[in-house]
Amino acid sequence: MSQFRWSEESEKQWDEKSSSWNSKSRDMWDNGSRKDIAPFIANHVPAGSTICDLGCGDGFGSLKLVELGYSVIGIDVSEEMILKAKETNTDNSAQFIKGDISVLPFSNHSLDGVMAINSLEWTEHPLFVLKEVQRVVKPGGLACIGILGPTAAPRLNSYPRLYGERVICNTMMPWEFEKLAKENSWEKIAEFGVYKKGADQLPIGSISTELRQSLSFMWVFMLRNVKQ
Question: Does the record's keyword annotation contain Transferase (predicted)?
Answer without folding.
Answer: yes
